[in-house]
Amino acid sequence: MTADPTFRGFALDAETALALLQWQAELGADEPCLDAPLDRYVMPERAEPPPAPPPAAAPAPRDEARDAAEDLVARAEAMAAAARSLDALAAAQEAFDGIELKKGARNFCFCDGNPAARVMIIGEAPGEEEDRQGRPFVGRAGQLLDMMFDAIGLSRKAVDAERALYITNVLTWRPPGNRRPEPAEIAMMLPFLRRHVELVQPQLLVLMGNTPCIAALNQQGILKLRGKWTAAFGLPALPMAHPAYLLRTPLAKRDAWADLLSLAARLDG
Asked: On the chain, which terminus has fewer CB atoms closer than 10 Å, C or N?
């Protein structure tokens, strides 16, 4: 209900107007109105403001963390490229202080096996036992790896290059708690790994697990990649499930055996 504050034809004094207003309020009038009805659904016309001038292009803010990471990768590339032998590469990689893993690891795990081998195995990272001994693949997973390749006549202890294995990891320091390597860590170690392959010059690569596939192929999903020959660092490469996965999933050993037979056939061919 609306209230009309005027009383047509009469001059109202303040007291009368107030009394009428109170009377109307008692009747239920709760909103005063004008002489003419007001359509509150009509939007008032507004002049369109002139278009604002386009803002001046501001320089993109620098991502200091990204710049620092790129600088570390560039430094790793320079140090790796300068290495002319495996000993020089090991010394350069061990001296590289851009990766935080180095501070928490006990030992530097560079390689194991015969550098003249036709087959180079690339794993993920050292575990607890590898960190203790300073050699890759010496824990339970490493023992299974030895048994697997011994079944096709290959061994890290073999002197004959035809039967020998050479083993390394993408990361040469153990991640805390055996966690999965982070992308930034892989990126920093990739120049050293690439140079490692160039210096060893194997005939074939075996990529053991997801991390080597990420580093060498820029792909992951080892259960989809395994058993399919591809190319990595300019060489034929065979992705395989990591022995640690086989220990957790014994049924997957059948696929691993098929991969080993494929590797043996490739070597014989």
From this structure: C
This prediction's pTM: 0.76
- Residue 61 counted as domain residue: no
Looking at residue 14, what is its pLDDT?
78
> Exposed, middle or buried by CB within 10 Å (0-12, 13-18, 19+), for 102?
middle
Identify whether 33 is part of a domain: no
Helix (H/G/I), strand (E/B), else coil: 89: helix
Q: What is the pLDDT at residue 229? A: 98
CA 102 – CA 234 distance, rounded (Å):
29
**What is the mean predicted confidence (pLDDT) over 219-243?**
97
Is residue 5 scored above 60 in pLDDT? no
SS3 content of the chain, % helix, strand, coil (to 5): 45, 10, 45
- Distance, CA of 255 to CA of 234 (rounded, Å): 25
Mean predicted confidence (pLDDT) in 26-34? 61
Three-state secondary-structure class, residue 125 = coil
How many domains is the chain built from? Answer: 1
Residue 262 forms part of a structural domain: yes
pLDDT of 25 > 90? The answer is no
Sheet of 119-123: strands edge to edge? 112-113, 165-169, 119-123, 204-208, 235-240, 230-232
CATH number at residue 227: 3.40.470.10
For residues 90, 91, 94 and 96, what is the CA-based torsion angle, rounded to 10 degrees? -110
